[in-house]
Amino acid sequence: MPFSKLFERFATNFLPPDVSDATRQKFENLARYASARAGDAPFRGNGHDQIAFVASGSTKLVAHASGGREQVVAFHFVGDLVSVPARAAHAYSLCALEECELIYFPAEQFFRLAIDEAGMANEMLDRALKALARCREKAISLGRKNAQEKLASFLVTMAERLGGAERLGGADDPGHVFDLPMSRRDIGDSLGLTIETVSRQFSELRERGLLETAGRSKVRLIDMKGLNEHAGHLPVAA
Amino acid sequence: MPFSKLFERFATNFLPPDVSDATRQKFENLARYASARAGDAPFRGNGHDQIAFVASGSTKLVAHASGGREQVVAFHFVGDLVSVPARAAHAYSLCALEECELIYFPAEQFFRLAIDEAGMANEMLDRALKALARCREKAISLGRKNAQEKLASFLVTMAERLGGAERLGGADDPGHVFDLPMSRRDIGDSLGLTIETVSRQFSELRERGLLETAGRSKVRLIDMKGLNEHAGHLPVAA
DNA sequence: GCCTCACATTGATCGAGATCAAGGAAGGGC
DNA sequence: GCCCTTCCTTGATCTCGATCAATGTGAGGC
């Protein structure tokens, strides 16, 4: 996809409709384009925080600890905005799950533009707080759930984020059907588990009739209620 | 401490020096006061996100999962601003570690005031991104570190946040000395460990000569370099 | 269509940390 | 100052998920 078209996608998603041409141009000047094949890290921050817009495809934000250990900190899909921190106690890199195209900006200048010139303060704050909320939920999973609960809550969350197919209800309800863009390894690195454990838990949930799988990536969540109960969530009426 | 004095503390910490009296008054009208003894949850959000300012003491943000499991999502100290989400898949409550005083606001109205009237958009965004960065570091700890690394990185972080005593260097270097305001249980609930494991790891780090403890809360970090090496951080030159 | 290789599944064993179970300090109340 | 409760420490055992090992499978290349 040409850069102009990608930038247009960013603009319609993020810039307010009444933004001035001059401001829009400043964003365009600041923007850098990157494309990546599955597994690639399409850009380096060179010591500065970056903001990336996922124009197509999907990505993971990976944190590297000593000993080659990796923790997937978040997944992102089309239309998401990701804050990629510069290296601190751990190094972070944004990595493509499938072929994807990104627009990225130096964070500091991006925020200055967004807040001071484009009136996007609320939008930016809202996004940051949503990311924080997701990260907190992840912390609960990582700290206090067993393997089965981790996978169940992961799948419920993915259904919400990916599942174009809405729940229909009724006898021939197909449930939530979607393709997981990430490998078992990515899921494991996200949940703090090994691929073997992830695989075993998929099998177990399948045997319990809560979901079906087809191929490496197709998932059908049959029993959302059951999955939620296995997810360690608080009961709704508690 | 009287409310006016507490609010004053909030104002000098957060409101821009040139803020109008009218705007300042709007913040004051929105503010609610709460005090709490150790272990209390001083307020309920009643279905709305809240923003709390820690005017004195220290707090933990606790997430509740099914089966009575608790995950401490973050600790906060004097001057911190905490976003306390309304109940979702898990319920959150802000809880006092020691006697403390808070000012809290309904989040939505607080942000509207802060952004539109007080020009605090940058400050708010900055805080949210810092909280996100901390939460991501916690996710790495929870997902990919062993018990010893978890405790070592926790202590290093606490030294940064609490340690009034700066590193002196030289032969009679006292190291970082501070009081941990939280119990072993809180540390365990934060690191995804049991109190027994936390205690054993304290003993082990003590035996290795990396730290000393006195009473329940006093800690002296003797060898910061060694602790960092045990924390699973990436080597600085990697 | 078939080959190939990376990815996924399944099984067997091991180990870090949880759990169960006793003591031992510490600090607040009187 | 002493008591008593709560918190912390240490030890013994168990368990879940990691690790090691082998087999199965599906998507892309030709």
Outline the structure in words.
The structure is a homodimer of 238-residue chains. The longest helix of chain A has 24 residues, at 121-144. The first copy, chain A, has helices at 3-14, 21-30, 107-117, 121-144, 147-162, 184-191, 195-207, 224-229, and strands spanning 32-36, 50-56, 59-64, 70-76, 81-84, 91-96, 100-106, 176-179, 211-214, 218-221. In chain A, the strands form three sheets. The first copy, chain A, has a four-stranded antiparallel β-sheet with strand order 1-7-2-5. In chain A, strands 4-3-6 form a three-stranded antiparallel β-sheet. In chain A, strands 8-10-9 form a three-stranded antiparallel β-sheet. The first copy, chain A, is globular and about 60 Å long. Chain A is α+β, with helices and mostly antiparallel strands. In chain A, helix 2 (21-30) runs antiparallel to helix 3 (107-117), helix 5 (147-162) packs across helix 7 and helix 6 crosses helix 7 (195-207). Chain A starts with a helix and ends in a 9-residue tail after the last helix. At the A-B interface, strand 4, helix 4 and helix 6 of A face strand 4, helix 4 and helix 6 of B. The structure holds a DNA duplex (30 and 30 nucleotides).
Characteristic key phrases:
238 residues, three-stranded antiparallel sheet, DNA-binding, 8 helices, homodimer, 10 strands, globular, 23% strand, alpha+beta
Q: Based on the structure, what is the oligomeric state of the protein chains?
A: homodimer
**Separation of the first and last Cα atoms of chain A:** 49 Å
Largest beta sheet of chain A: what is the strand line-up?
1-7-2-5
Chain pair forming the biggest interface: A-B, 50 and 50 residues
